[in-house]
Every structure is written in structure tokens, then in C-alpha cells.
Amino acid sequence: MLDRLTSPSGARVPEIDLHALATELFPINRSLTGDGVRETLAVVARHVGLDIHEVPTGTPVLDWHVPSEWNIRRASIATMSGRRLVDFADNNLHVMGYSKPVQAVLSRAELARHVHTLPDQPDLIPYRTGYYADDWGFCLPDRLWQEMTDDSYRVDIDSELSHGALTYGELFVPGRTNKEVLITCHICHPSLANDNLSGISIATALAMRQARQTRRLGYRFLFLPATIGALAWLDRNESRVDRVEHGLVLTCLGDSSGFHYKQSRKGAPIDRAVMHVLKHSGHRHESLPFSPYGYDERQFCSPGFDLPVGCLMRGVHGTFPEYHTSADNLDFIKPECLDESYAVIEQVLDLLDGDLLYERLDGRGEPQLGRRGLYRAIAGQREAGGATQMDLLWVLNLADGKHSLLDMAIRADVPFARIEAAAGLALEAGLIRPGAPSL
Ligand code: ZN
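# zinc ion complex -> structure
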């Protein structure tokens, strides 16, 4: 058995403090491109070895082109007397992503065309981007905007749109076979915690764990700016995507809602694996059908690729009131929720790796368990919360080369790990032998 880090309650815990990593990354100004993305990847790379890819501006990727690189030094709206009312230095959400540079005095009416607020949530700053818009804008609390009644304001955005690159991070942990599990997250949002940082923190911790082990499957971790990052990776790896056996997009995993799993387009084994783990996790959970909207599953599951990739979330993007606002902050994500999400995904990865076919060496009737010391072995397992006699009987009955361990766990309605432990006993006793990988 592999070493596992466990908390006093027996639950699995990550090797790093997920909330602390999110806290460290929170202030960095990320966007589709730019130095904030590089800085973020440099922080992740302190924990796991990352390959950093730079794809030059203008590079065609599938039907798109890599956009200009965006960087920003400062931005503000000030009164004519010089009092700063809105300052990028206070919160990087104040500036619409990809805002072009501007220095001007504008009437309030002119400025209004470039101001974004949330009248229904007047104390929050919205998150807005204008990636391909050739525009600029400020985001501020509606309450502040309503108080801004001067005739004119001074606006200043010191930003740069230049020929640069799109940056993404990749870590591949090879397995014993050439089949891979793809784990992806986004790295393009500025100071938002649940949307992006929860996924980055959990993917980093999972990468650290997988990098310490050699498993049957390889594990590929991708830290990507939304859409264009996934398109760039697919474009550059088209000849290798058939190695992707399973994939999971991670997002919004730090809030306290129940889990939501969005199924793959094709109805892949990952769907069954995630739902099995969630069912036995004790957490509230719901399965959502595939739709061509959301995160990068819409690229991985586009018809020319149709990869077996689902998306795991707690709160569903676009549906919780904090989404894409300044309320998606470090208080909104909870350390215990991040840890729970990590533990669920860790179990999914172990399940995918261990889901093999077995067959009985002699399938005629039940084998005699006592003669092989299996009653004694089962009693030992029971004390450790492992396999029961019934689990062993399920394995011995369904080990016909056609049922995988997950098939057995679902049929027996018990956690996968118990069936896997029972299979381990049967294997040691020489009653079963491995068949081909099931999935
Ligand atoms: Zn988002």
C-alpha cells in the first residue's frame, strides 16, 4: 500500500496548506497573459517542477490567435483636485482586464460609458475583462459611483498591450503505461479566490503527491489561462491527445456548497468514477449533464477531440452571488472545504489507477477461504476499516475478466477502496490474477 498522509480523524490531507497558497497568490494581477501569470506559475513551481511554455503573440492556435500580452503598472480615477477615488493599487479588480492605456479628463457622462458596477450588489466590485475589445474600463462599487457627482474626473491607466507571449505551466508525471490522466485549472483571474485560486492550490497539492509516486497511469497537470490556453495546448499536442484516458477540470472548489460534477460530453468512465467517490464521501453532491459552456471542458470535449474530461466544482460558476465579484475573496473559501475537495479528487485518482480487471484462476464454485487464511485476514482488515467478508465474496464472484473493480464496488455498493483491498487479499491468496486494464 502507498503511504498516505492522514489527519487524526483518518481523512486524507494535502501536503501543503491550500488556503495559505491561495492567500499568497491572491494579490497577484493575473490575466490571459502577462507577468502576473508568470509570477503565479513561479510560486507553483516552488512546490512542483513545472515546464513553463511561452507561446508568442500572433501564433495561430486552432481557429484563434494568441493575443497581445497585457501588463499594467497603475490605474486610477481621481477628482480634478487629485484625490484618488478608485485605485488599482487597492484592488486589481478595479481595472477591466486588457484595458488599453488612457490618460484623460472626462465628463462624468463620458466616464460612465467605461464604468462597470453591480447595482444589485452595491458594495461589491465586479470582475470584467475586455480581452479582444480594444477598450478600457473601471469596475467599482455602485455605492461609490453614485456618490461620484463631480462634472469631470481624471482617469489614468498605465498599461501596455505588446507583442509578447501567452504563458502556461505543465507538469507530466510518467506512469508505467502510456495512458494519462489530465488535470487542469485556470490561472487567468486576478484577485478572485474560489474561481481560479482554489483550483490552482488543489492542482498544485495533487501534483506534489503524484510526483512522489510512479503509478500505472501518467498524470499531466496543466495550469492554463482560460480558453486560449487550452486551445494552445490542444493545438501543440494534437498527436498525443489519444493518450488521455481520463481528465478533470478543477474550479470553484473552496466554497462550502455541495459538490457538482459536470459530465464529459461522451459519457466517459471518469463520470462513473467521480460519482462513485462522491456517493461514498458523505458530501452533498449532484451530477450535471455536459453543456458546451463553462470552463475548459468545452475545449477538451469539442467534437474534433471529444476527450473523456469532466469538470468538478462545489458552487457552480455563475450561480453563486460572490461569483466574479470582490466577494469571491479569501474569506469565501474555507480551509476545510479546500481539504475536502482535495481528498475527493485524490480518491478519484487512486480509483482510476487501481480500476483493473481480475479473473479467478479457478472460477468453479466458491474457493475455501479458511484453508487459505482468508477469514483471519478479513478479521484484521475489519479492524482497520478495510475489506469485509462480503467484499471478498463480491470480488471472488465478479472476477471473471469482465467486471472491473469499480464495477464490483458499484454492484456491491461499497467504497472502491474496500473492494480493492479485498482484491489484494484474493491476489495474495492466489485466487485471482490481473486481467487487462478495464478502462
Ligand atoms: Zn471566472
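# post-check
The first helix runs from residue 18 to 25.
The mean pLDDT is 95.
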